[in-house]
Amino acid sequence: MKKTVLLPTLCIALAMYSCGNEESESHTETQAITEVITETVTESYDFTKENESQYLSKGNGFLMSGKIDQAISLFSQMAENYPENKSSYLNSLGASYHMNQKYDKAIETYILSMEAGENASTIDDNIWESCEYKYKQDNDSSIMTTYLELFPEGMYIAKAKSILAS
Asked: Where do the domains of the chain lie, and which CATH numbers do they carry?
């Protein structure tokens, strides 16, 4: 099944925004926005079983090259279109959110991955890492309570309890 992303409303809005003087700041901004959208949106995927490993490599390549938004988009679509490997692609999606410093979204996605069948030990590691980064980012220890609720027998309970006690 081939899916192509179309954004007609956004294209119309951009066209309306750029009307007028080509020397204006809004015209220049519109051109820059259009280039980004074109680069991101023109990608279409043919989600057949034969293409799955190619898309996995592509998603991982996006992550490694810092194209996190593209990785998020692709792993999201892969989780939807390859249900037999949904847990793995949700795990990769969680990693993408983590790399994008969206730790709450990463944790939420890792939970979905575990519910879809991903290895609990792997998810324990991943959620702990996101909780730890979120704690360092916000200096709010309440995220450790979230970890303890999710993994009352987890590998990092001593660390979580230590942070809560401090």
From this structure: 1-42 (no CATH), 47-165 (1.25.40.10)
Beta bridge partners of 46: 2
Which parts of the chain sit beneath pLDDT 50?
A: 1-21, 24, 38-42
pLDDT for the residue numbered 17: 47
3-state secondary structure the chain: CEEECCCHHHHHHHHHHHCCCCCCHHHHHHHHHHHHHHHHHCCEEECCHHHHHHHHHHHHHHHHCCCHHHHHHHHHHHHHHCHHHHHHHHHHHHHHHHHCCCHHHHHHHHHHHHHCCCCHHHHHHHHHHHHHHHHHHHCCCHHHHHHHHHCCCCCCHHHHHHHHHC
pTM for the complete prediction? 0.74
- Sequence-distant (6+) residues with CB within 8 A of 122 are 91
Measure the CA dihedral 115/119/122/124, to 10°.
50
* Torsion angle of C-alpha atoms 152, 154, 159, 164, degrees rounded to 10: -20
